[in-house]
Description:
eight-stranded mixed beta barrel; binds magnesium ion; about 50% helix; binds ligand C2E; globular; alpha/beta
Amino acid sequence: QAKVAGKNCFRFYSRAMNQAVERRVHLEQELRGAWDRGELSLVYQPVFRLVDGAMIGAEALLRWRHPELGFVAPSVFIDVAEQSGLIEVLGPQVLHAACSDAVAWQKVRKDPEPLFVAVNVSPRQLRNGDLPNVVSACLRDTGLAADLLHLELTETAVIGDELHASALLSELRGMGVRVWLDDFGTGFSGLSHLRRVPVDGVKIDRSFVADVLRDPDDLALTTAIIAMAHSLGILVVAEGVEKEGQYAILRERGCDFAQGYWLGHPVTVDEFLQLRR
Ligand code: C2E
Ligand code: MG
Ligand code: MG
Ligand code: MG
């Protein structure tokens, strides 16, 4: 009896596993032509300076709307792109589009200070040594000032190969581009890394920001990250600010910049051209 049930279980699990594999393969096939079919687009989430509330830039976030599958979450398709190597084609396309959108903002919007665009760069894009070439080609083709391009790298992209990463980041910063460490605090080695990896700033992961009002540990950690970053001459962005209280406490603790639903959702480039704060 048990044997039979076991067999059925096995068949059930292996079928579920096959379906998961098939789904990934299918997503990868569909993602391959998605850019050319116009299914991929960028949305922009504004970033604000806490001392005066000014909008200072925006983060580019990729969206995929497939005709049959609908919206596919970035956490899913970015992972597929990363695993399959497709990100090495998609990444430069995203970078180029974001730089050219940022040039349009400077022309159309009337901001007192030019707004930066922050672009997410995946571990694979960093490991493939072509990034400095891709970045300089984007800046040259679009005419965007280098200091208005911010690259966001996750801790995991940098960990393990600090020497290579440091050389690459120094080269990028030498071009005038800014570099941010994304999802900061989620990797365990966080704080000690900052001495070895040259970055302009860190983005405190939204899992810490989520609980700063309720959990004294998360507030203590956030406060410590801000103090330590500042002592190293590094700026701090808080992500995932969903409540006024979070904004207030981050501002009180000396955090430099913030983004989140309470401040502004990601919007299309056309909406962003009109966006007022
Ligand atoms: P991320 O770079 O940490 O981006 C922040 C994510 O938090 C975005 O999710 C954004 O929509 C979401 N978010 C912003 N404010 C709030 C808030 O107040 N509350 C909550 N709960 N969420 C908020 P999204 O767009 O789904 O992107 C997820 C991740 O996918 C990004 O995390 C990034 O790692 C990756 N990603 C997105 N676009 C790109 C891209 O063009 N290239 C690469 N390599 N990765 C990308
Ligand atoms: Mg990011
Ligand atoms: Mg993040
Ligand atoms: Mg907590």
